[in-house]
Amino acid sequence: MSARRLKLVYFAWVRERVGRPEEDVDVPEGVDTVADLVRWLKSRGEEYDYAFENEGVVRAAVDHLHVKPEASLGEAREVAFFPPMTGG
Amino acid sequence: MSARRLKLVYFAWVRERVGRPEEDVDVPEGVDTVADLVRWLKSRGEEYDYAFENEGVVRAAVDHLHVKPEASLGEAREVAFFPPMTGG
Amino acid sequence: MTPTIRIQADDFSAADEIAALGQGRADIGAVVTFTGLCRDEGGRLAALELEHYPGMAEAELGRVADEAARRWPLHGLTVIHRYGRIPPGANIVLVATASAHRIAAFEAASFLMDYLKTRAPFWKREHLADGTVGGWVAATAADDERAAGWG
Amino acid sequence: MTPTIRIQADDFSAADEIAALGQGRADIGAVVTFTGLCRDEGGRLAALELEHYPGMAEAELGRVADEAARRWPLHGLTVIHRYGRIPPGANIVLVATASAHRIAAFEAASFLMDYLKTRAPFWKREHLADGTVGGWVAATAADDERAAGWG
After folding, report:
1. Fewer CB under 10 Å: which end of chain A, C or N?
2. How do D30-37 and D91-99 pair as beta strands?
3. What single string gives the DSSP state of each residue in A8-55?
4. Are C105 and C73 in contact (CB under 8 A)?
5. C interface mutation test: which of D17, D18, D21, D35 has the most C CBs within 10 A?
6. Where are the alpha helices (DSSP H) in chain D?
7. To 10 degrees, what angle do helices D141-148 and D102-119 make?
8. Cβ contacts (< 8 Å) between C100 and chain D: which residues?
């Protein structure tokens, strides 16, 4: 298996901590779940360490659907990370 | 003690059964509660018998306040009888 | 906070009442409105006729409104109830509540409708599509139970 | 029944949405609206700024609306959520539900707000009265609990 390309998008203070609203990344083999993806991102630089310093807080969505950390990335094209929502 | 004068008002099917929307009555001594008043009215004619044939159903208000049958007439000026309410 | 209570034959505008509640205020975070309308019951009805007890209707809606204001922190409260002949699709009743927070606004509006249904002196009679006058609408035990549920 | 879902920067009119829900129908007995507005928090705020996730916001509100329509017999359902900078006193969100009966309309509107608060991808940031940009509003555990309470 080869690396896969994913679009990552960030919102609110997760976006501010990562320092960009979105990016395309080539994810290596072995990154199968959302939790794997977070772990891999944290190895890439301190801005990710900062954004995900409290992993239980940051929420994720895969292709516009809320998911839990153990969710498989499957055929995902877009993964979003954001704080708990405060709309309404 | 002398007889007291009361204004009686009727609504919806209670009004239709009594055959008038309101009337002034001179209530004799011994009629102290709403239940007493209903009993006395039923002795006055079959239209009242018909209106109050199922006493538990007809509601009463004394001077614009909901009351139970055992409520004292006290210094009441206006007593209303009506079916359970269906507004809203 | 002084509740607005109106008993009227004329129609009302929920929009105008919402606007009046919020006017010039920046401490309201939530407005809930309930509008009750006349249904045609699958074409069976030509109209509902609402009879009311003038004087007591205003007094009782005022008491129900005061009770809601005592239970929840409301910035505004409006209750409007129509009487007379009301055709299908037309408004019958409006309850509007304004508060800093949504739970208070929702609960107070729901309480007002439950209480109003069992305590406000109004009675509905059906006018049928064939032109005849139908019967008086019967009260439901479910409404009594909901009102009692507020304690 | 097709829910109306809109995500927009522009303001909305609760009145227009109520009118649209009931238009030409005689089977609606109850319309409930919830309007969420920006508070100034005792003069502390100049505005709230709402960030959202385009695409997912529409999708998630659609899912929440479909769930409400599955749980209650609704004749109409509208959800409008604004984004961008919103000054005190201005509208943020509207939920409107129409049903034959009041309980369904009340419960569905309350459910929609509870679900929307915890699932719709919107984030509020404070802009302070002194001209500075404040912090992101924190989510509350109470909102999570209310949403979970619907099962």
Report:
1. N
2. antiparallel
3. EEE-HHHHHHHTSSEEEEEEPTT--BHHHHHHHHHTT-HHHHHHTSST
4. no
5. D35
6. 14-22, 56-71, 102-119, 141-148
7. 130
8. 39
* Euclidean distance between CA atoms C92 and C38, whole angstroms: 7
What is the reported pLDDT for B18?
A: 98
The model's pLDDT over B11-69, given as tens digits with 9 standing for 90+, comes to 999 999 999 999 999 999 999 999 999 999 999 999 999 999 987 899 999 999 999 99
Angstrom distance (rounded) from CA C133 to CA B13: 13
Contact C32 D34 (CB under 8 A): yes
**Chain C hits for D21, Cβ within 8 Å:** none
| C-alpha span between C127 and C86 (Å, rounded) | 10
Cβ burial A20-34 (10 Å sphere, 16+ → b, else e): eeeeebebeeebebb
The values of phi and psi at residue C51, to 5°, are -95, 145
Q: Which residue has the tokens 């005190």?
A: D88
Q: Mark yes or no for CB contact D120/A85 under 8 Å.
A: yes
| Lowest-pLDDT choice from C21-30, C57-66, D5-14, D27-36 | C21-30
Shortest Cα–Cα distance, B76 to chain C (Å): 14
Query: At B81, which amino acid appears?
Result: F
Contact (CB<8Å) D136/A12: yes
D66 touches chain A (CB under 8 A): no
The count of residues in chain B is 88
- Residue linked to tokens 């990710």: A48
Give percent above pLDDT 90 in chain D: 86
Mean pLDDT of A77-81: 98
CA distance C52 to chain D (A): 20
Q: Cβ contact (<8 Å) for C27 and D37? A: no
Q: How many CB atoms lie within 10 A of CB C100?
A: 16
Q: Which of A11, A61, A85 sits opposite D139 (nearest CB)?
A: A85
Report the percent of chain B where pLDDT is more than 70: 98
Instruction: Please count the other Cβ atoms lying within 10 Å of the Cβ belonging to residue B19.
Output: 13
β-bridge pairing B59-62 and B4-10: unpaired
Interface of B with C (CB under 8 A): 9, 11-13, 61, 64-66, 80, 82-88
Condensed to tens digits (0 to 9), the pLDDT of residues A3-60 reads 789 999 999 999 999 999 999 999 999 999 999 999 999 999 999 999 999 878 999 9
Collect all residues from C whose CB is shorter than 8 A from any CB in D: 13-15, 18, 22, 24-40, 42, 88-89, 100, 102-103, 105-106, 109-110, 113, 146
Residue owning tokens 């059964």? B17
- Residue pLDDT, tens place only, D84-111: 999 999 999 999 999 999 999 999 999 9
